[in-house]
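Appendix B, example 12.
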Amino acid sequence: MKYIGTTIKYLLISAGAIIMILPFVWMISTSFKSGGATMVFPPQFIPDPFVSDNYVTVFERFPMLTYLRNSIIVAIFTTLGTILISTLSGYAFARMQFRFRDQIFLAYLATMMIPAQVIMIPQFILLKNFGWIDTYQGLIVPGIFAVFGTFLMRQAFLGIPKELEEAAFMDGANHLTVCFRVILPLLKPSLATLTIFTFMQSWNNYLWPLIVSSSREMATLPLGLALLQGQRDTDWNLVMAGVVISVIPILAVYLFAQRSFIQGMTMSGMKE
């Protein structure tokens, strides 16, 4: 009976894995098909004929290098800014004593329940007054203040014994030294988790770049992929080729930090 339960469990896990992987297999397969083979029935997972020129065509018809450059710049600087802000704020809420600390943190955490669409218009008006519309500042700065990042880093700091920082304070260290040189090197899993989440969110963000950028020179990759779809006819083989290009950086970042990411997810649930 034990073996039957184990077999059923593995069968369900395998079925779930196949369901999750199937869209990616179809995406890659379609990116190597000709235009007339994308809608054939029954579906073909093995392209016939195999066409590798779709990737070349995407770069020839559209300024994909510009879209990639903008997405890389926005994602990298948004991630770095989020890590810096979340680390400082998480350390302050976890280790520094000040009046109404817990109440302020709870109020800050409650803002996660506010839909992002509600604050987009006020943010747009504010950035317009700053003159940051259609600029890298407008694309990057609003995204670096992440409530989830502060919560994640606070939980990580709470999991570190206070004796470590107390010893550093006795040696004359200040809060910045304790934060960045004593505690932060121990939080690589949490940093990897925050890095992956922030990079993915920034890389795949479509709505905010659509609002704050008005030219193709400042468009990010999600906006560029939307341009691949025609008003009447859509070359789905080209669209899938563009999607594959957009997925590669995310997979690279995840595979690079996979082990630390899993450890960080378990550490984020530590209690105070």
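The chain has two domains: 1-52, 63-267. The radius of gyration is 23 Å.
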